[in-house]
Design brief:
The chain is built from 22 helices and 18 strands. The protein has helices spanning 2-49, 95-105, 117-130, 140-148, 156-172, 175-183, 195-203, 212-221, 225-228, 261-272, 278-285, 298-313, 319-327, 344-360, 365-374, 385-395, 457-467, 502-508, 511-521, 523-532, 565-576, 611-626; strands spanning 66-69, 75-79, 84-85, 192-193, 231-234, 247-251, 289-296, 378-381, 405-406, 412-413, 418-421, 428-432, 475-478, 498-501, 580-582, 587-591, 597-600, 605-607. Strands 2-1-8-16-17 form a 5-stranded mixed β-sheet. A hairpin with a 6-residue loop joins strand 11 and strand 12. The protein is elongated. The termini are far apart.
């Protein structure tokens, strides 16, 4: 009896325990079922609302930086809008790099259909345990979809879209086509997109030249570009060895401290060792940039070894190759995004001209700007690097400006602008818009008008005079004259020569003589010639009846808006070119990535004076140098 009483409670406890387990199992099964239904429903909604894509046109979505070349075909600048991108065919990318990326990013890439189910369940379990979306399950195809069609947001919706688009991509593209798209769009730190850009920035070489250790290092960056960038920067001491130092110039901001005495010593040593140009030295002294040395990132080295282990595991390399690659001393060699000794003045003008050129062949302004920064254009400019280098050197040499000073805005005075142009072709060979000033998109005095002073006289007065009955020997009386108010105007800066000839007026730069000749030629005739010679800043009475250039002050350079140095250079060039005006050009040709010519410049030439009068005017101006 007692035994039966003892057994009954135990059976009840066991039954309750079994029922509780069943209840938990039922709840779990229901939760899994409900979760599955919810997931399927969510996936269906995402698929239904996803924008349609056309993977066959995927190449059109691959952004690429554009490039500016000089007149010899030498690269002078890589144009980017925050990121440097350069497209290369898959055949140019070493197999070691392709295999390294597959091994570390998506080892079953060649087998799955765009979505790796095994990897998804592993990542899902991790995310459930950590209550996060930290573990990625993206395949290379899904990452291509993210790079080209979706966003960087870490959401389930985006991941579902990536998976759907990946399946669509794999239906029409081969694995090689997908890998090509991925390797050319992958973010690899330091503002680079794609393996070609990374090879240039980290090792200053074409991607095809990368060896196995370098390829593995680049492949390892993508997991965390900020952490695994191939190099880090460090301060430079004036006492250290500068041999082979890799120098990175970083733009300053409002919080960058002014250079110390020790910093100035570093700048001088960098210049002395040929590691920076005079222009860059000037930029450092002015605190537009600060200097750091680039050294191998130890985190990147560790990550490289992980990549090499994955390559060994997947039998892409042998044990011997692995050991050799791990011990290989990787060296950072920084590539340049632009030639260091050329300021931005010329390139900025080329970019503006490129947009205008593209608009002239049918692009909208918006599309032209977009293709400039992401369309992989090859822009062939008229720049002569050798002439530009000389001009930069002379403009930034303080010895050429004795008595100069720094104004309250920190700008050297006097300022300067210079344009050098081929008078026969119209090609601008060099241009500088200021001295002691640096940065991007800076104020360009070569393209902005100012009062031309006496430099306008041959263009506005004397060539029109020769074209309208005057000769080099025409007589003029150089003496003080009174205006309608009874006041002496204009006045010469020096003496008056009395009776003289036109040639002497130019040699002496007589103000009185210029006004007398201008009065006889007439302001309307002068304006007609100036416009024909490319002066674009003239204000006529029709444009502004109160303030305009239809007066004799124009003969002395007193103009409403002034004249740009570029316009004035082209006007003088027309005199040197036997009276033929050629519109200045900065670009000869623009090609797209496939080499198709999108734009080719055609010289715009017009006869503005007879060859005889142009020759006489040139001969008179020679006397200005020889006798004036």
């Amino acid at each position: 009896m007692d035994k039966d009483l003892e057994k009954k409670p135990n059976k009840k406890k066991k039954k309750r325990k079994i029922n509780f387990i069943r209840l938990i199992s039922l709840i779990t099964a229901f939760a899994v079922f409900a979760g599955g239904i919810t997931a399927v429903a969510a996936a269906l909604i995402v698929v239904k609302t996803a924008e349609p894509i056309d993977p066959t046109k995927i190449s059109e979505l691959l952004d690429e930086s554009s490039f500016i070349f000089d007149d010899k075909g030498v690269l002078i600048e890589k144009i980017s809008n925050g990121e440097y991108r350069s497209m290369v065919p898959l055949s140019q990318i070493p197999e070691d790099l392709q295999n390294a990326v597959i091994a570390v990013e998506d080892e079953r890439f060649r087998e799955h259909n765009g979505v790796d189910v095994k990897r998804i369940f592993g990542a899902l379990w991790y995310d459930i345990k950590t209550l996060s979306l930290a573990q990625g399950a993206s395949t290379i195809t899904m990452q291509v979809a993210k790079n080209l069609y979706t966003t960087m947001d870490k959401t389930w919706t985006r991941k579902l879209k990536d998976a759907y688009y990946a399946l669509e991509i794999e239906k029409v593209l081969s694995k090689d086509q997908i890998l090509h798209a991925y390797l050319n769009t992958i973010g690899l730190g330091r503002g680079t997109r794609g393996v070609q850009a990374a090879a240039h920035v980290y090792f200053d070489k074409d991607v095809s030249e990368l060896n196995l250790p370098e390829a593995a290092m680049i492949a390892g960056i993508t997991q965390n570009p900020y952490k695994f960038s191939a190099y880090v920067t460090a301060p430079i001491s004036p006492d250290e060895d500068f041999t082979g130092m890799q120098v990175s110039l970083i733009p300053s901001n409002s919080e960058t401290p002014a250079p110390t005495a020790e910093d100035l010593k570093v700048f001088d040593r960098l210049l002395k060792n040929g590691l920076i140009s005079n222009l860059e030295h000037n930029q450092l002294v002015k605190n537009d940039y600060y200097a750091r040395k680039a050294v191998l990132n130890p985190d990147s080295k560790e990550r490289q070894e992980v990549v090499l282990k994955m390559m060994l595991k997947n039998e892409y390399i042998t044990e011997a190759q692995y050991n050799e690659a791990v011990s290989y001393p990787v060296e950072i060699k920084l590539g340049k995004k632009k030639q260091s000794n050329i300021s931005s003045y010329f390139a900025d003008k080329v970019k503006a001209e490129a947009v205008t050129a593209l608009e002239s062949v049918g692009y909208s302004a918006e599309d032209a700007n977009e293709i400039l920064y992401g369309g992989g254009l090859r822009i062939y400019s008229t720049l002569s690097t050798s002439i530009q280098n000389i001009l930069e050197e002379e403009v930034n040499n303080p010895a050429n400006f004795p008595g100069s000073w720094i104004d309250e805005d920190g700008i050297p005075q006097p300022q300067v602008a210079s344009v050098i142009m081929d008078q026969y072709t119209g090609q601008v060979k060099a241009l500088v818009g200021g001295r002691g000033i640096s940065g991007n998109k800076i104020y360009n005095r070569a393209l902005n008008p100012r009062q031309p002073g006496s430099s306008i006289k041959p263009v506005a007065v004397y060539l029109p005079a020769l074209e309208n009955g005057f000769t080099a020997g025409s007589g003029v009386v150089d003496e003080p004259i009174k205006d309608e108010k009874g006041e002496y105007w204009p006045k010469n800066f020096s003496t008056y020569d009395g009776p003289t000839i036109l040639r002497n007026l130019v040699i002496k730069s007589s103000n009185v003589g210029a006004v007398q000749v201008a009065e006889k030629v007439g302001t309307k005739k002068m304006i007609e010639y100036m416009k024909n010679m490319g002066i674009s800043t003239i204000v006529t009475r029709d444009m502004n009846s109160a303030v305009n250039d239809e007066n004799l002050s124009m003969a002395l350079g007193g103009m409403t808006k002034g004249v740009t140095p570029l316009d004035l250079t082209a006007a003088y060039a027309s005199i040197a070119n036997s009276g033929k005006y050629t519109k200045p050009v900065f670009i000869t040709k623009i090609e797209n990535t496939s080499g198709t010519v999108l734009y080719e410049s055609t010289p715009e030439i017009r006869q503005i004076a007879t060859a005889q009068n142009a020759y006489i005017m040139t001969d008179i101006m020679k006397d200005v140098v020889n006798r004036g």
